[in-house]
Amino acid sequence: MTKDFRSDNTLGCSPEILEAITRAAKGTATSYGDDEITARVRVRCSELFERDVDVFPVITGSAANALSVASMTEPWGVVLCHADAHIHRDELGGVEFFSGGAKVITIPGAGGKLHAADVQNAIDGVRNGSRTGVPSVLSLTNATEAGTVYTNDELRSLIEVARRNRLRVHLDGARLANAIATGTSDLDGVDILSFGVTKNGGMTADLIVVFSRELAEGVSIRWHRSGHRASKSRFLSAQIEAYLTNDLWLRNARHANAMAARFRDAISGRVEIVYPVEANMIFIRLEKGVYESLTRDGFLFFDAAIYGPDIYRIMTGFSTTPEDVDELAAALEDRQSCLSC
Ligand SMILES: Cc1ncc(COP(=O)(O)O)c(C=O)c1O
To answer: Ligand 1 centre and the CA of 119: distance in Å?
Structure first.
């Protein structure tokens, strides 16, 4: 039984994906992404997203984000994103580095979500400043860093603002599967998607999916030049192909989401749940003593103090079991009642 709820990337990898890697190890294949498996991934993604796309396998979501966003802006551009966006908080300036200095400007938003009016205000603010930079990219994240999921209407209105103001749209889909598993699927108007695989059962693979194909050459050059064009790309693509076969990506995501919902239901009314639980993350407020006691007993989850005092994050994944969840919920209940006794 796992007691590890730190992240969906502390988990292992789906057997189907491991088997696909083993199969890909037989024989030889053309290198640097020109192999047959990568070609099939492109066809599969074109079917899935119902338009012709270009694809670039990478080993991290951070690389997918930085290379994608950098391909959509000049060095003097402004990239707008949520204040908690991974590209802002967690990637050590990857976007700024790969774009040659584009400025990332953040916008606050409750529950991890941006709102169209705030985005418009931010664009106006930058334009009025006139020397700040040129608003160039809106980067959205779905599912969000707060574990919430944009509705299609919310996505449409955000993308509409970007389009009206001639901004490109990037979607950080590190957990897009978890979002789509809830029924949100509108990707119309997105120029480039960072499509997560690793966090949802992959071993080490994410995918840049380019919808606006005029951007593909710029992505391709940055992908190669930055050292992200793996010579044995077929092993990345094999993971992605297996992920997209027989709906593994959706099955894994539905399961992870269901485990989060199970945990929410088990603790609701007894522990403060900070954000709506819509994907595979639960943010709760706990007394520090409870957290420390659970940690001493081997339950691992993150202190999420950047979201506010006494806030902790629990994350479920494709291999989290109902028993894992129930054990954590029971231990939490036990520690809470001990504190008040
Ligand atoms: C929303 C989001 N985007 C991007 C990433 C980056 O992925 P990686 O850790 O593979 O670089 C993460 C990682 O946690 C994430 O949560």
So the answer is: 23
Using CB distances shorter than 6 Å, the residues near ligand 1 are 60-62, 65, 86, 141, 145, 172, 174, 198
Alpha helix positions (H), 14-92: 15-24, 36-48, 61-70, 86-89
Closest protein CA for atom 4 of ligand 1: 61
Going residue by residue through the chain, which has 341 residues, state the pLDDT in tens, using 9 for 90 and above: 669 999 999 999 999 999 999 999 999 999 999 999 999 999 999 999 999 999 999 999 999 999 999 999 999 999 999 999 999 999 999 999 999 999 999 999 999 999 999 999 999 999 998 799 999 999 999 999 999 999 999 999 999 999 999 999 999 999 999 999 998 878 999 999 999 999 999 999 999 999 999 999 999 999 999 999 999 999 999 999 999 999 999 999 999 999 999 999 999 999 999 999 999 999 999 999 999 999 999 999 999 998 999 999 999 999 999 999 999 999 999 988 765 54
pTM assigned to the model? 0.97
DSSP bridge pairs for 83? none
Q: How far is the CA of 241 from the centre of ligand 1 (A)?
A: 20
Closest CA to 205 of 77, 56, 329, 87: 56
CB 143 within 8 A of CB 278: yes
Cα 177–Cα 96–Cα 112 angle in degrees, nearest 5: 40
Q: How far is it, in rounded angstroms, from Cα 244 to Cα 42? A: 11
User: Is-contact 217 208, C-beta < 8 A?
Assistant: no
Taking alpha carbons only, the member of 34, 56, 79, 43 closest to residue 221 is 56
